Amino acid sequence: MTRTLVVGAGGLGGPLALALAAAGHELAIVDPDTVELSNLHRQIQFTAADLGLPKATRLAARVGGTGTVAPWAPALGDAVDLIVDASDDPATKFAIADWAVANGRRYVIASALRFGGNVFAGAPGVACYRCLFEEPGEGPTCADAGVLGPVVGAIGGVAAAVAISLAMNDRTLAGALLVFDDLRRVAEPRIVRFAPRSGCSACARAPITPQPKEIPDAEHSRSQRSS
Ligand SMILES: [Zn+2]
Questions:
Q1: Of 14, 98, 211, 226, which has fewest CB within 10 angstroms of its CB?
Q2: What digits encode the pLDDT tens for the residues 81-115?
Q3: How close is the Cα of 36 to the center of ligand 1, in Å?
Q4: How many domains does the structure of the chain reveal?
Q5: Where residue 50 sits, what CATH number does that domain have?
Q6: How many Å lie between the centroid of ligand 1 and the Cα of residue 138?
Q7: Does the reported pTM lie above 0.85?
Q8: Which DSSP symbol is given to 54?
């Protein structure tokens, strides 16, 4: 059974946790916040009965697993196979990605804003989140700029699908960023692939874990040469 940490029990974390629990993941959920009235339109895992209560434990009670009322901390990552970021905090996303790279973990970073969002699939041996974004930007967060309620559900669902495939050692999307510009118009993501960035401080701390290389097909290359 895959042990998965979901960081953030809000709009993204709710559908993520529901989908991962249904797929048989053993969940740990971490979030420092409590449920507020203004959350309910996009955090459909909660009802008015949850107001004022901690998101992490309320979501854990709903889907099974453990809830921790705290921000992300590396000790939480030690106990799991896979980390999924569903927070609304750029610094948390970078901290999780950096820790996952340094400790050889698979990870997913999900973000939603206004009408779209993106999902990054991280795994050992490929370019990392910091290779692409370098530093937390100055851009707006959901809290500042808002997000359409159903959009977080859609992005959370995609993040869950990516997490499930990584958990099954499917590396098809490893190192790729799925970008949804405006889900009201286009449902198909742009898939952004990129090379590791030389000088990336996260990759510099990655364990040396050689990835299995494709063994060249000798017969095939010989026939190519002779033709
Ligand atoms: Zn990197």
A1: 226
A2: 999 999 999 999 999 999 999 999 999 999 999 99
A3: 36
A4: 1
A5: 3.40.50.720
A6: 20
A7: yes
A8: B
